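Researcher: Next entry in the queue.
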Amino acid sequence: MTLDDLRAEIVTCRNCPRLVDWREHVAVEKRAAFRAETYWARPVPGFGDPSARIVVVGLAPAAHGANRTGRVFTGDRSGDWLFRAMHRAGLANQPTSTHAGDGLVLHAAWVTAPVKCAPPDNAPTPLERDTCAPFLARELAALHPVVVVCLGAFAYAAACRTYAVRPRPRFGHGVETNVTDGPTLLCSFHPSQQNTFTGRLTEPMLDAVFTRAVELSGVGGAIERGV
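Model: Structure for this entry, 227 residues:
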């Protein structure tokens, strides 16, 4: 199965009734700032370079972010932090992403989430998490990344389940877990407002994670050459 085939399967999924109801409800009861926009209101597939050596994994689409724009981490403040950091690391051609047609191109990187639909209160249930897990497993199998950047404990746990990491080392910012015959899992605090507003995550901290990801992945030389 190709990434395009997987995308087509993801965007038509209706396996979790609570998530389907929520993502579609939000698209009707819009935030005032986006009243004139038509929301995507479907599962959000991963996005990026199909030859990615670095895969960035988050949690789930934001109700008024990717659930609105149709592109993961696009249109919310977490995405603002993420794409600025990826741009500084040479993994993105621009530091912002506001909508799916805004010209953003990722180099040697792919961004995705373990849960493809926006959950109420950003909290998928264990059943919803497990129902969606095969999508992430197939995505990672198709990409064969060298590094998986895990934004938050939820992403780290999902990556460890996908790669059958047991026992699972404790999550922490900057923690690295090497998967036998697989990628390095590189942890970062999630760039949520809760973390960025309180200073738990700073831009230099996030930059350090992506600098390390580039180093581990071996794409640094290509970035310097503009390849």
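Model: The first strand starts at residue 47 and ends at 48.
Researcher: Noted, moving on.
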